Structure formats: C-alpha cells, structure tokens
Amino acid sequence: MEDKNSPIGGGMFSSERLKGIDAFVQAADSGSFTAAAQRLNLTNSAISKSVGRLETRLGRRLFDRTTRSLQLTDAGAAFYAICVRVLAELTEAEAVLVAHESEPVGRLKVNVPLAFGHMRVMPLILTLAERHPHLRPEISFTDRFVDLAEEGIDVAVRISSSDVWPEGLGKLYLGCERLIFCAAPAFLERHGVPQNIDELDRLDAVLYGKGDGSTTPWRFSYEGSLSERKVMEGRMITGSAEAQVQAVKAGFGVAQLATWLIEDELKRGDLVEILPKMATDGFPLHLVWPVKRRLSPKVDAFISLMQEQLKIREGHVGD
User: Fold this and answer.
1) Which of 43, 195, 204, 298 is deepest in the core (most CB within 10 A)?
2) What's the rounded Cα separation, in Å, for the pair 288 and 146?
3) With 0-12 CB in 10 A as exposed, 13-18 as middle and 19+ as buried, what is 31?
4) Rg (CA), the chain
5) Are 43 and 37 spatial neighbours (Cβ–Cβ below 8 Å)?
6) Which residues, in sequence order, are bridge partners of residue 140?
7) Helix pair angle (21-30, 33-40), 10° resolution
8) Using an 8 Å Cβ cutoff, are 315 and 196 in contact?
9) CA dist., res. 203 & res. 59, Å (int)
10) Residue 151 and residue 253 in contact, taking contact as beta carbons nearer than 8 Å
11) Each residue of 128-148: pLDDT tens digit?
12) Residue 157: beta bridge partners?
C-alpha cells in the first residue's frame, strides 16, 4: 500500500521534496560535483550524497556519470527544467518579502489590444520597467478574448462594450473612446466635405473587419446621444486599425475612428474631422486583473501608472 506521507506518492506535501534540489541544479549547471561544491561552499562528497539521495527518493537516475563529467539523463533534463522554474519563483517570492511588498519585482504578464497596446500601453510599460529595474514585463498583443486565469495574465487592458464580467476579476474604468468621422484633405477636395448623413453615406468608406467576417458598424450620434448603428458598405476593409488609418490617409475614403488612434494625424493635418456634431462615445476601456493578485506591488505599479499617465480628458481616452 502506498504511504500517503511519503515524499513521492500521496497528496501531502513534504519538505523532503526540496532537499537536494539546489545541489542537483548547481551540478547540472557546472557539469561536475566539484564545481557545484565550490559554488555552494560544500564538500564534493556532500554534493554527491545529496544528489544520490535525491535520485533514490525519485526512483530515477538524474545523471550519467563519467570520470570527467556529468550528463543529464532524459529524466534529469525534464526534472532540471522544473527545478529551475521553481527556484526562480522562490527567489521572486523572497525578493518580495525582503522588499516588504513595496517594490515591484519579478515577472509581470500584461495582455493588451493590438493597436491600443502598441500606441498607448507599450510606452507606459517601458517607463514602468525603467522605474523598476527588477521588474520583468511580458506583454502579449491580441484583440481576441483572453482568459486571464487560464493564461496566467496578471493584468489586462480591455476595450469592450460587455457589461458581464467573470467572477474573480477586479476592474478599473479608465474612460471611453471618442469616435469621430474623418478623411484625408485630398479626398475631401475631390469629393467635397459632407454636411449631413446622407452626403456622408454617398462617400466611399474604409471599414474595420472583425475576425468573424463582419465589419464594425458606424455609430451616429444626434445632440450628443447615441441613436443609431449602421452597417456600411466598404470601399476597403482592413483587419488592422493601423492599416485602416493608412488607407484613410491615402485617400480611399471616410472612416469612423477613435481619437486615441489618430491623435498625431489630426495634429499634423493628415486627417481632418468631418461632421463634428456626429462624434460619439465608443467602447469603454477597463483595466482587469485576477482579484487575488490585486495586492501585488507589480500589478499595483502598472495600474497606478496607467491612471497617472494615460491621457484622459472629459471621460475620453486620448481625446
């Protein structure tokens, strides 16, 4: 019968499982017991016995030994990869405690939308990494829905109209997009500046294509309130917001775009806003994170920086 208190079988964790791991990793890294002993300030015999006891406990040979070197077995290589990760996590945990949970350290996994992430979030992450040299950001860019818990994400930026939030997620409202109609000056010189929806409807449109094959409908606002969404026929459809901006700048038509996406183009005059009274709110922006990680200094630092430096005016992001 299996001993449930043994370090190998059973569900109970035993401190025995940690014994010998440091010696094993150092021996694997250096290629010899002698070098490992020097690194750990132990004797060659102590290292050899420690690894031997570890192999006995695991029931696997971790090294192929020769008179000149050590070589990891297949089982040893697999075990080594796990041990390195575990030791790194323990080091990170100790660093957090030493810093009295005030200094952001270790890996910070951030998920952001493609265009907004590149244009607005990435510069802030670079600032964060400069402020906190012991922080190791890992940034993923995608417009698809990401399960934060399943993919180990610490904090994410969401641009979405959804009012339904999974349990276990904390969220912080950052503001909302402001959507405007715009076109290139050369396009407007050729076709004229539309004065109403009917005239706008007759112009070529550059649309954003979603992954399901549909396009993002245009939103029309009257006296500041949303009153209509309309699916348009597109002169050109792009699956990238940056490409959509390029097409509009090149004079292929009119688009409805978020001001955070085209702030520089508007300032330079590459794009011109049309029908300003038809501008309307777009999707809200939120920061979301697993609630259990909210107290992490690295997550707090990211959230604070987003609040501090993300340009928000009158409730609009990048307006």
Assistant:
1) 298
2) 11
3) middle
4) 28
5) yes
6) 111
7) 120
8) no
9) 74
10) no
11) 999 999 899 999 999 888 888
12) 287
Q: How confident is the model at residue 11 (pLDDT cuts 50, 70, 90)?
A: very low
Average pLDDT, the chain: 85
Which tokens in the block code for residue 88? 């790194």
Of the pLDDT bands very low, low, confident and very high (cuts 50, 70, 90), residue 319 is low
CB 217 within 8 A of CB 229: yes
Give the whole-angstrom CA distance, residue 195 versus residue 68: 85
**270 pLDDT higher than 50:** yes
Using CB atoms within 10 A of its CB, is residue 37 exposed (0-12), middle (13-18) or buried (19+)?
buried
Angle (CA) 299 301 307, round 5°: 105
Q: Tokens 């150092």 belong to which residue?
A: 26
152 vs 271, more confident: 271
Token pair in block for residue 174: 């950052």
Which amino acid is residue 203, in one-letter code? Answer: L
| CA 166 vs CA 162, 163, 264, 292: distances in Å | 11, 10, 36, 14
Sheet strands (E) in the chain? 63-65, 70-72, 106-112, 135-141, 155-159, 169-183, 206-208, 218-222, 225-230, 236-238, 255-258, 272-274, 280-290, 312-313, 316-317
Distance CA 269, CA 252 (A): 16
Alpha-carbon distance of 287 to 159, in angstroms, equals 9
Residue 116, pLDDT score = 93
